[in-house]
Amino acid sequence: MNVAMNVVFIGGGNMADALIGGLLKNGFAPAQLRAFEVDGAARRRLFEKYGIECIAESRGMIRAGEVVVFAVKPQQMEEAARFSGLKPNANLVVSIAAGVTLASLSGWLGGPNGAYTKLVRAMPNTPALIGAGVAGLYALAGVSEAERKQAEAILGAVGGTVWIESEALMDAVTAVSGSGPAYVFWFIEQLAASGEALGLGSEVSRKLAIETVLGSAMLAAQSADSPAVLRERVTSRGGTTEAALKSFEEQKLAERFLRAVKAARDRGAELGAPMAKD
């Protein structure tokens, strides 16, 4: 990995924490990383955990050439951007704020000298907290190939990355992978609850559910076969698995699941719309 860049985080919450930890594990030195965080307890936690420089105020403190990662909550993004003190297009900026469009961020950062164009929007997910996440990335045309690699290296420090061809599709990324861990946790919860309902103990049911999902995901990741093929191999004609899958089909669970994911996508678009109008 190319570690010849310096990265500054605006916001020091859980995702920033995960990214900082991932970058350090991937060869970055603490001196290459900084964080701006208004909360004193969060600053102390990051400094004590990683030994990086942590400052309360970013205005006028961002250095030339630093890659700037906005890791604040969406509702805090406008204020953080307007008061960041960034000069137009002086730094590559990566945003991990869900629902915040690059048009909104560009306007907030642009100032009197025009819009900010060196922007990358990223949608990581919570497994990044253990280095097992995946992030969708979208870059404006003003981002060079070298800068795209920098953004990819930052998000790639905590998992996989994929580039998305249109920002309009970032709401779909949010619905599939950003919200996706909640769907998986829900499935684990239901599988464990079903085990209990069938007479298994709670701890046994929980272990069976978690290990089954974990092992199946690992098999899918390592196999050259599609999930559909792997599913078919588990499904014997006239067997127990087929009985369950027929019940899923009769209840149109695939259609219901698609409607649910579409609802998440549409909600993401709704949340971003008010900010896009600013």
Short descriptors:
278 residues; alpha/beta; eight-stranded mixed β-sheet; 11 helices; elongated
Structural commentary:
The two termini are 38 Å apart. Strand 4 (67-70), helix 3 (77-82) and strand 5 (93-95) form a beta-alpha-beta unit. Helix 6 crosses helix 11 (253-276). The protein contains eleven helices and eight strands. With 278 residues, the chain is of the alpha/beta class. It has helices at 14-25, 40-50, 77-82, 102-110, 145-156, 170-178, 180-197, 202-222, 227-234, 240-250, 253-276, and strands spanning 7-10, 33-36, 53-55, 67-70, 93-95, 119-123, 133-139, 159-163. An eight-stranded mixed sheet has the order 3-2-1-4-5-6-7-8, sandwiched between helices.
Shape: elongated
Compressed to H and E, one letter per element, the order equals EHEHEEHEHEEHEHHHHHH
Task: Supply the helix-strand structural class.
Answer: alpha/beta
Helix tally equals 11
Task: Please outline the major beta sheet.
Answer: 8 strands, mixed
The total beta strand count reads 8
Q: Which percent range describes the beta-strand content?
A: 5-15%
Low-confidence parts lasting 5 or more residues at pLDDT below 50? none
What's the N-to-C terminus distance? 38 Å
Question: Strand order of the main beta sheet, please?
Answer: 3-2-1-4-5-6-7-8
What's the rounded overall pLDDT mean? 93
Any idea what the radius of gyration is? 21 Å
Helix percentage range: 40-55%
